[in-house]
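User: Please predict the structure of the protein below. I'd like the answer in structure-token form so I can feed it into my own downstream comparison script.

Assistant: Understood. Taking the following sequence of 279 residues as input:
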Amino acid sequence: MFTMLPTIAFPVIDPIAFQIGPLAIRWYALAYVAGIVLGWRLAMRLAARGSSPVRPAEVDDLVVWVTLGIILGGRIGYILFYNFPVYMEEPLAALRIWEGGMSFHGGLIGVVLAVVLFARNRRIPLFGLGDVVAMVVPIGLFFGRIANFINGELWGRATDVSWAMVFPSDELHLPRHPSQLYEAFLEGIVLFILLMLMERRGIRRNMGAMSGIFLIGYGIARIASEFFRQPDPQLDFLVFGTTMGQLLSVPMILIGIWMAATSGRRPAPDRSKEDAVAA
């Protein structure tokens, strides 16, 4: 039981940013667009720095591949990880993306597959390309969590902290953690700053190091924030009181540790010399 203390008023914002005739543009869609566009521009700048193993033109071509990976992977991941029985009963519901239902872990798998296929197709160092992509992912995470907050979805567990909020979509009308903002801060701002600091220290010279740091950092941030986030109602708490988000983050951390630990075996090639020869 929680004593009903004064709470911070939830800033009710229309999920629809603007409407053009019958076409409604939602903040959630704009968050995806902002994350992809800003991430793309930053990735171009990172690829242009020093002796990057990835060229800006290659990043430019990668955008479409990554966008498809995010959308298809995120949707398929949500169906498989979070609501599979429902979609088994009504398969066509999987096409109704406008109703919501995206999984970050599924989107990550989609992006990884897109990067692997693109790297093979263009004969680009896989881990070098992955590092550039990993460094800009927190931008999309930040905007995505802000969109979750605007939509009043994926709210936190009931609490009596002074900054608790009552979300309109909560039928119990309990004061809850604004966990979307916690995630935006940890997965977005903190992780982005960490990666940029590591990049300035030259960590990217060993391919796979930045990707490993991202996986470790995101996994820890997600596990921590899940202690404040209300589990999805169709899943509730799982083994030992964990959540699906926490369980899916454990292998991310393990893979990240391996990638960071072995990155010294993968020095980044100086492709500027290749360009000079080709010129």
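That's the full token string. The mean pLDDT is 89.
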